[in-house]
Design a protein that fits this description.
The chain contains 5 helices and 7 strands, in the order H-E-E-H-E-E-H-H-E-H-E-E. By secondary structure, it is an alpha/beta fold. Helix 1 packs antiparallel against helix 2 and helix 3 packs antiparallel against helix 4. The chain is globular, with a radius of gyration of 23 Å. The two termini are about 40 Å apart.
């Protein structure tokens, strides 16, 4: 064997050893780091007055992430939600912040998401027609399936953005039931859009019950039973080592 082969083998062995140590470190420190981030985030949320809010550090693929997904606290004011998100963003080691209902806070905590033209296209469709459901059910009425087809087509040019789907009801029933039904209907629309080729990872749902009737309508008016869409551009979040851990 030529003498020059030995240095190459030594370099290869050294590289493999470094790689093995890096993978081992990812397995050991990743979970511990996220556990610490979870504890510090809970404290930050409480101090910011957002106790109903929870933070998940699990990415869509099941891996650990430094980019928490915030959920809960739908009844909080926008000012409180903003304060909570910024408090979480200030925790050392946290990456970008994202709300489960579709709003996002970039790492700078100062970038405001912008609406895209797709929302105008969808609103134009829904101004004339409404996605209807079977009575007291989250099952989309057969007559509305064509409208859902058109909504999916209108959203397709803006794939890669975040699409928030919000369900509303009238006030004819008890509010806990209204909240549950409005979310179930939003989820039904989400599932229908996924079936029509809209990626699931860009869809967010929430139910508002009867708290936000259409301006000018009585809270009991059936026209308050509706689905609204918010399509926003987002800023890409920088990946971190914890987002791509080694094999387990």
């Amino acid at each position: 064997m030529p003498a020059t082969s030995h240095p190459r083998i030594a370099v290869l062995i050294g590289a493999l050893a470094v790689l093995g140590l890096a993978l081992l470190a990812a397995r050991i420190t990743g979970p511990r780091m996220v556990t610490q981030l979870e504890a510090e985030t809970r404290t930050a949320i409480a101090q910011a007055g957002g106790r109903p809010v929870e933070a998940s550090f699990i990415a869509p693929d099941g891996s650990l992430s430094r980019n928490p997904l915030l959920s809960g606290g739908e009844g909080l004011s926008e000012a409180v939600r903003d304060r909570v998100a910024k408090a979480v963003a200030a925790v050392p080691g946290i990456g970008g912040i994202r709300w489960a209902d579709g709003t996002a806070l970039a790492e700078s905590a100062d970038i405001v998401p912008t609406q895209l033209h797709c929302q105008d296209d969808v609103e134009a469709l829904l101004n004339a027609r409404t996605i209807r459901f079977e009575e007291s059910s989250a099952r989309i009425d057969a007559a509305s399936r064509e409208l859902v087809d058109e909504v999916a087509t209108a959203l397709r040019p803006c794939l890669g953005s975040i699409i928030a789907i919000t369900g509303h009801t009238d006030s004819s029933g008890p509010e806990p039931g209204n909240l549950a039904l409005s979310r179930e209907r939003a989820e039904a629309v989400r599932d229908a859009l996924i079936a029509r080729g809209i990626p699931a990872d860009g869809l967010r749902v929430r139910g508002m019950g009867s708290r936000h009737p259409v301006e000018g309508l009585a809270p009991t008016d059936p026209a308050n039973r509706r689905i609204e869409f918010s399509v926003i551009a987002t800023v890409p979040i920088k990946p971190t080592p914890v987002d791509t851990p080694g094999p387990r």
